[in-house]
């Protein structure tokens, strides 16, 4: 358990402390459950009415709520960002590996940087380069000539195929597979012929990849994930996809091959993006979006039908099947009215 003074939290967040600088906290807690020794935050103003009853040792708030706090307060520009920074400072998550396990299999020509940790039964193949401070969890496989930048961390059972490169300060969760074959086949009179995937995967700095997410290598060119991208659990990123700086993608999203996604996009969970399309910078797609065409302008986009009772859904589905017929009838009525107007 870590312990920090309120003065230290003020330094970490860059906020203005009102109260006892020597008081200490050991964990972050939600406002309604926080007790002494806890730090909490107010990011939604509608909950400001609860500040008077909050038992936390410290509450992080915006300037507008500072006078509502009855105890120690830390005035910050963005309480949610401050929460993220404080949570990092109080984080007690163990490292995926410490030291180099005797059971790790490491090629003699692998280049291992300073302060590298490699867990039990990990396999590091020939030509691999691990930067300083890299942590490789138990059971990981790193293929030939792969490169991992400084301070990149792999949790247990991550697979990094041959020739793949990861930048610095990346975090890869358990079960992720980076550099597997893209879906490439040619049909020769009913027989499928596999197309070798000759490209690779290039991942930038400060990228996070969730558990059991798969990123396929390119068919000819590389699949590219730029800096500061966050990919959640169980995503499928197909071959030759490009994802721009700062884009985030929650769980279950599927991106088909050769799609290019711009910078600072937010792709809602369980969305499906068609192949060979482009998404402009700053696009937000709400959950379960089905993107069949390119999006050329920044904005918020949605698709799909919200949940209905089964009875309502059946009625809606029946009407959808009749849209073409209804359209023809509507055009006929419009023409009839037009003819009457002309006469």
From TrEMBL:
* Annotated catalysed reactions: a UDP-3-O-[(3R)-3-hydroxyacyl]-alpha-D-glucosamine + a (3R)-hydroxyacyl-[ACP] = a UDP-2-N,3-O-bis[(3R)-3-hydroxyacyl]-alpha-D-glucosamine + holo-[ACP] + H(+)
For this protein, the record's InterPro entries field holds: Hexapep, Hexapep_transf_CS, LpxD, Trimer_LpxA-like_sf, UDP_GlcNAc_AcTrfase_non-rep
According to its UniProt entry, one GO biological process term is: lipid A biosynthetic process
What the entry lists under SUPFAM superfamilies is as follows: Trimeric LpxA-like enzymes (SSF51161)
| GO CC aspect terms | membrane
Record GO terms (molecular function): N-acyltransferase activity; UDP-3-O-[(3R)-3-hydroxyacyl]-glucosamine N-acyltransferase activity
| Annotated active site | 239
Q: EC annotation?
A: 2.3.1.191
Give the domain of life: Bacteria
The record ties this protein, via PROSITE patterns, to: HEXAPEP_TRANSFERASES
Residues forming the UDP-3-O-[3-hydroxymyristoyl] glucosamine N-acyltransferase non-repeat region domain are 23-88
One Pfam family recorded for the sequence: Hexapep
Instruction: Look up the record and name the pathway of this protein.
Output: Bacterial outer membrane biogenesis; LPS lipid A biosynthesis
Keywords, sorted A to Z? Acyltransferase, Lipid A biosynthesis, Lipid biosynthesis, Lipid metabolism, Repeat, Transferase
Question: What function does this protein fulfil?
Answer: Catalyzes the N-acylation of UDP-3-O-acylglucosamine using 3-hydroxyacyl-ACP as the acyl donor. Is involved in the biosynthesis of lipid A, a phosphorylated glycolipid that anchors the lipopolysaccharide to the outer membrane of the cell.
Which HAMAP family does the annotation name? LpxD (MF_00523)
The text of the family note is: Belongs to the transferase hexapeptide repeat family. LpxD subfamily.
Assembly and partners are described as: Homotrimer.
Name the record gives this protein: UDP-3-O-acylglucosamine N-acyltransferase
Which lineage? Answer: Bacteria, Pseudomonadati, Pseudomonadota, Gammaproteobacteria, Vibrionales
The gene that this protein is the product of is lpxD
């Amino acid at each position: 358990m870590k312990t920090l003074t309120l003065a230290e939290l003020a330094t970490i967040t860059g906020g203005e402390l009102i109260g006892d600088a020597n008081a200490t906290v050991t964990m972050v807690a939600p406002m309604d459950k926080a007790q002494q020794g806890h730090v909490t935050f107010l990011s939604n103003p509608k909950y400001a009415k609860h500040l008077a009853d909050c038992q936390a040792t410290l509450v992080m708030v915006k300037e507008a709520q500072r006078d509502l706090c009855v105890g120690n307060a830390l005035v910050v520009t963005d309480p949610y960002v401050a929460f993220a920074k404080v949570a990092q400072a109080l984080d007690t998550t163990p490292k995926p590996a410490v030291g180099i396990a005797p059971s790790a299999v490491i090629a003699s020509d692998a280049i291992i940087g300073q302060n590298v940790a490699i867990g039990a039964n990990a396999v590091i193949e020939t030509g691999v380069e691990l930067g300083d401070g890299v942590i490789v969890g138990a059971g990981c496989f790193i293929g030939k000539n792969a490169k991992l930048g400084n301070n990149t961390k792999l949790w247990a059972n991550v697979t990094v195929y041959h020739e793949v490169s990861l930048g610095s300060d990346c975090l890869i969760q358990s079960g992720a597979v980076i550099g597997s074959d893209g879906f490439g086949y040619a049909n020769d009179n009913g027989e499928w012929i596999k197309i070798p995937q000759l490209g690779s995967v290039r991942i930038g700095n400060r990228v996070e990849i969730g558990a059991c997410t798969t990123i396929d290598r390119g068919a000819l060119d590389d699949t590219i994930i730029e800096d500061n991208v966050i990919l959640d659990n169980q995503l499928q990123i197909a071959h030759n996809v490009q994802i721009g700086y700062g884009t985030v993608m929650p769980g279950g999203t599927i991106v088909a091959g050769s799609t290019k996604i711009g910078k600072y996009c937010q792709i809602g969970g369980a969305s499906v993006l068609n192949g060979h399309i482009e998404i402009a910078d700053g696009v937000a797609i709400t959950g379960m979006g089905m993107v069949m065409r390119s999006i050329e302008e920044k904005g918020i986009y949605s698709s799909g039908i919200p949940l209905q009772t089964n009875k309502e859904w059946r009625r809606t589905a029946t009407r959808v099947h009749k849209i073409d017929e209804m359209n023809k009838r509507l055009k006929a009525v419009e023409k009839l009215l037009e003819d009457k107007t002309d006469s």
